[in-house]
Amino acid sequence: MVRKETAWGYFFIAPMMIGFAVFMLYPFVYSFYLSLTSSDGIVAPKFIGFDNYAKLLKDTTFLRSLRVTLYFTLVTVPVGAALSLLAAMLLNIKMRFVTWYRTAFFLPVITSMVAIATVWKWLYNTDYGLINSIFAALGLYEPPWLASAKWALPSIMIMSIWKGIGFNMVIFLAGLQGISPSLYESAKIDGAGAFRRFTNITFPLLRHTTVFVVIMSIISSFQVFDQVYVMTQGGPAKSTSVVVYYIYQNAFQFFQQGYASAMAYVLFAIIFIVTLLQTRLAKNKDVDG
């Protein structure tokens, strides 16, 4: 009887396991093999060992793309998390139409990144874009936005933060609603103001929520691609050329799929290490606390 139930269990999970093996495990293993070869996707791959990884250390374009990605991450993750927490706290207050406000904040999350990037590209247009039109009417400075190497990356950052606020807001909102109102009532009785209630109650009790939001945001920011591809294609002057876009160029424009696979594995290692360190630090704080 037990063997029969076990067999039926394997039967029902077989479609999922087959899908995982075909679409996840096999590409993962095969891409690592490609990273050890010189492959253009047409002729048979030629095994070259770790030459692709050694080449990465001397590739100034890759190193610059990595710096751009790190800069993008260091700005968008803390700013996005802070704004998401602020939005969650404001929308955690009982007021009319709060459900509609929450929905409005979340709508960008479920909207295609390509569609949003296309709209923002129009908004940023220096000739007829809505943003500069408003600035001109107010007599303010009109930034060149996507046309300038100085402004292009900040422009993408602004759009990316705006799109990601809704998702992180929902996570923070769930955490806030899990905090007992009695803690705030006791703090008010003791004379604690709004700032002290936030620093002594809200923020400490949202530690695990914050760690989750930061980890997910870092993973997402390291994988930024769609908005760069649609809005700037790495320009101007490679100022927005992030790692994933450079991987795309090597794989599908320069036809260096072995080299692109090596870059992908380096990016995977960076994300894995950063995530592991954050998780360890969070656990250590829990133990110390």
TrEMBL record:
<keyword id="KW-1133">Transmembrane helix</keyword>
<keyword id="KW-0472">Membrane</keyword>
<keyword id="KW-0812">Transmembrane</keyword>
<feature type="transmembrane region" description="Helical">
    <location>
        <begin position="205"/>
        <end position="225"/>
    </location>
</feature>
<dbReference type="InterPro" id="IPR051393">
    <property type="entry name" value="ABC_transporter_permease"/>
</dbReference>
<comment type="similarity">
    <text>Belongs to the binding-protein-dependent transport system permease family.</text>
</comment>
<feature type="transmembrane region" description="Helical">
    <location>
        <begin position="7"/>
        <end position="29"/>
    </location>
</feature>
<feature type="domain" description="ABC transmembrane type-1">
    <location>
        <begin position="66"/>
        <end position="278"/>
    </location>
</feature>
<dbReference type="Pfam" id="PF00528">
    <property type="entry name" value="BPD_transp_1"/>
</dbReference>
<keyword id="KW-0762">Sugar transport</keyword>
<feature type="transmembrane region" description="Helical">
    <location>
        <begin position="68"/>
        <end position="91"/>
    </location>
</feature>
<dbReference type="InterPro" id="IPR000515">
    <property type="entry name" value="MetI-like"/>
</dbReference>
<feature type="transmembrane region" description="Helical">
    <location>
        <begin position="151"/>
        <end position="176"/>
    </location>
</feature>
<feature type="transmembrane region" description="Helical">
    <location>
        <begin position="103"/>
        <end position="123"/>
    </location>
</feature>
<keyword id="KW-0813">Transport</keyword>
<dbReference type="GO" id="GO:0055085">
    <property type="term" value="P:transmembrane transport"/>
</dbReference>
<dbReference type="InterPro" id="IPR035906">
    <property type="entry name" value="MetI-like_sf"/>
</dbReference>
<protein>
    <submittedName>
        <fullName>Multiple sugar transport system permease protein</fullName>
    </submittedName>
</protein>
<keyword id="KW-1003">Cell membrane</keyword>
<feature type="transmembrane region" description="Helical">
    <location>
        <begin position="258"/>
        <end position="277"/>
    </location>
</feature>
<dbReference type="GO" id="GO:0005886">
    <property type="term" value="C:plasma membrane"/>
</dbReference>
